[in-house]
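Bench notes, bay 3.
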Amino acid sequence: MPRHTPSLLIATAGLVALAGCAPTASSPEASTSTAARQCLFQNDVQSFRVRSSDQTVFVRGIGKAVFELQVSGACRDMDHAMGMAFWPQHGLDRLCTGDRTQIMFSGGTPPATPCFARVVRKLSEAEVAALPERDRP
């Protein structure tokens, strides 16, 4: 096996992961699939709100984009979160609906530990407006 094979495999895996979020308009079904799989750049998150009763996190990206994340399992410091950070997965900055990631909350008892979350969906402007003020990022 050549010495460059592992790095080539890693690069190929990264490209395949990015291709999952890339828009394709070759058919009406493809454009519907793309619309259903909207993406958020982790570095563009401006604010967040935690609804710990059902382990939901709402994050606001640049502009009016608000995404719903669902946290799975026990997540330390979620109730007292003053800060939130994404724990980078595979070096990718983009999270699309359906993707899993890890997030960390700060503001509680150190040390902060990562939690698993899934990007559920991008909310429409009407859905964001309908959120109670305490849940709106």
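Next record in the batch:
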Amino acid sequence: MNTIQTYKKIEQYRRSQGIEIPKDSTIKSRFYHWKKQGILTNVRKGVYLPSDLQDKFRIACNAVDDGYLVYHAALEYYMLQTQEFNWLYVHSPSNFRIFNYQNESYIYKPVKFLHNPVIIDEKEPYPIRVTSLSQTIIDCLYNINLAGGLEELLYAISEIAPSNIQEEDMLHCLKLYNSKSLYQRAGFILSIFKEPLRLSESFFKVCKAGMGKNISYLINPYHCDSFSKEWNLCIPGNIMKQIKKDIYYEI
């Protein structure tokens, strides 16, 4: 983002805070004056944001080009996490190096697509962009490690209100991934929560139609010592115990 673009965003932000902008100087001189006053802060190389912008989600989305919260960062935004990590995963069309700001690390983790993303305060200078809840669920099933691990993901799914579940959107995301093993993982995990999430039989029929004949693994094969015949999936033998003990969900 160049100096002029940065200035215009910050000008808009300061006006929204009720701060008058002087008209007796050039854009560039005002910009550098703000830097000297500490009104702007250098978030990463060549990128400045207002010093009083403290929202880590807004920082994540605006310190890079068209940033979107993804994976565990998206779960955290939706308040579906058990832990608050001191890093956030951010999708951007432009690769960027990890950077640290205000005790948070911002890490480039692109997703394969963006389907119906959510944009908060779109007309404001520093909006929040996040993958839809439906895509977040499927993205996290695709890469469970980036969801914070299996236990974290199971907790997140158990906390979703059934009214927020959009079956068609989830199925569309599964179709876009076009991964047989993902259909297996999605079918198995979501079948555990079938009743509380009010998922239909047709949802699981689509998952079974999309899954392959090959055996797949829910997580690292080293930890998989049991088998789901229905989903042709190797799973950790204590998965049901994890759900009962750590998520307090009654099977």
